[in-house]
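Quick start: what a row looks like.
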Amino acid sequence: MSEELLSFYDEVGGEPVFAKLAHEFYKGVAKDPVLKPMYPEEDLGPAEERLKLFLEQYWGGPSTYSDTRGHPRLRMRHMPYKINPDARDRWLGHMEHAVDTLKLPPLQRETLLEYLERAAYAMTNTFED
């Protein structure tokens, strides 16, 4: 009898978990003087929804992100913003806090944080202040 493998999305709890992750992350961004100006919308709700959809799809959930926005093109979408090491580290700090609110088992926590750290470093596009 073969066991069906669960996606990471299903393993961690699906949509409610990714909704909480995005919401907790943007609570931090809303108060961050470096990151908040990078978001053109006064209401961070649309950005929160885009992040949730992207992460859900990346981790094996629904393909709603690509269905509505096309290919993620993360570097291109972030290029207009000055993402230096300070911005990257602030982003990671808010993201780590958000991940910790999920109370994931250690392996899932580390898996998620390792991906987010790689993504943050990949988005860094300047070393100027």
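That is the whole record. The mean pLDDT is 91. The two ends are 58 Å apart (CA to CA).
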